[in-house]
Amino acid sequence: MTERQRILITGASSGLGRGMALEFAARGRDLALCARRLDRLEALRAEIARRYPMVRVAIRALDVTDYARIAPVFREFDAELGGLDRIIVNAGIGRGEPVGSGRFAENLATVTTNFVAALAQCEAAIELFKSRGGGHLVTISSVASVRGLPRAQTVYAATKAALTSLSEGIRADHWGSGIRVSTILPGYIDTEILSGSRQRPFIVDAETGCRAMVRAIERERATAFVPGWPWTPIAFLMRHVPLGLLLRFL
Ligand SMILES: NC(=O)c1ccc[n+]([C@@H]2O[C@H](COP(=O)([O-])OP(=O)(O)OC[C@H]3O[C@@H](n4cnc5c(N)ncnc54)[C@H](OP(=O)(O)O)[C@@H]3O)[C@@H](O)[C@H]2O)c1
User: Which of 9, 13, 16, 142 gets mutated to test ligand 1 (max ligand atoms within 8 A of its CB)?
Assistant: First the structure.
């Protein structure tokens, strides 16, 4: 398997993006990190410099809903690190309201960030990889994508289902070429996105979750539930049980 030395992560200022950056840094990989909160990226870069001084870290402030900025920022990173071997489309939000509750703006924000901006990131990533003859595109979906979910989760789950489908389409486009596409579907991992929500079953801490995510990304499979246990069998059950039965657990 090719070692992907230069890795771009969007949404790297907290949670899974930050945790994956630290895991890849521990493996000696160079990093291109972006998010809106530049102060957090600066602190992360300083931490990586202290713990892993050989690792190169480039940072940029980027709001992924500023679609026109995405490709130029990716190209700047590419130039700064001398190429990008892997791009992880990770930035996302967990906001959402029941459909019909009169709070369309919240749901639109979720669609815009989790799907439209993810599409813009995939467009920019694939263009770059085509110009360089290869690369690994990774999209961060969710176990929530495997089934339509009720209430505040409805639109979030739909955006992640759309992202999983988008990723498979891009994978089909580049089948057998130097461009690989992986979709990671995390279960519950303790980050800011879950803050304020009720206790979640089978939740793991961010360090455990990010270590499992990086292991799964490095395998470069088409799709992976993370952590594999218990989320692979749970996802299978979620997909196949009758809706009435599923609702008892949600
Ligand atoms: N934690 C879980 O249990 C879980 C499960 C399944 C899937 N996921 C997915 O994992 C991804 C990361 O989430 P997380 O758990 O790490 O949550 P998090 O701690 O809230 O991190 C979200 C990251 O996305 C960035 N972001 C949000 N909106 C952005 C925007 N408009 N432009 C640029 N960056 C933006 C945030 O950075 P700024 O605010 O600084 O911009 C932050 O770095 C998301 O796609 C989420 O849906 C998480």
Answer: 16
Q: Which tokens sit at 144? A: 């929530």
pLDDT lower than 50: segments of the chain? none
In a domain? residue 1: no
Q: What is the mean pLDDT of the chain?
A: 96
Distance CA 186, CA 249 (A): 18
| pLDDT per residue as tens digits for the range 103-114 | 999 999 999 999
- Concerning whether 156 is annotated as a catalytic residue, the answer is yes
Q: How far apart are CA 51 and CA 211, in angstroms?
A: 17
Please give the pLDDT value at position 22: 98
Is 210 touching ligand 1 by the criterion CB < 6 Å?
no
- Please enumerate in sequence order all residues whose Cβ is within 8 A of that of 48, keeping only pairs 6 or more positions apart, or say none: 21, 22, 25, 31, 55, 57
The domain that holds 85 is classified in CATH as 3.40.50.720
Structural domain count of the chain: 1
Range of the domain at 94: 6-247
Q: ω before 227 within 30° of 0 (cis)?
A: yes
- With a threshold of 0.90, does the pTM exceed it? yes
Q: Please give the pLDDT value at position 1.
A: 63
Pocket flag, ligand 1, residue 13 (CB < 6 Å) = yes
Residues 125, 135: contact at Cβ < 8 Å?
yes
What pairing do the DSSP bridges indicate for beta strands 57-61 and 30-35? parallel
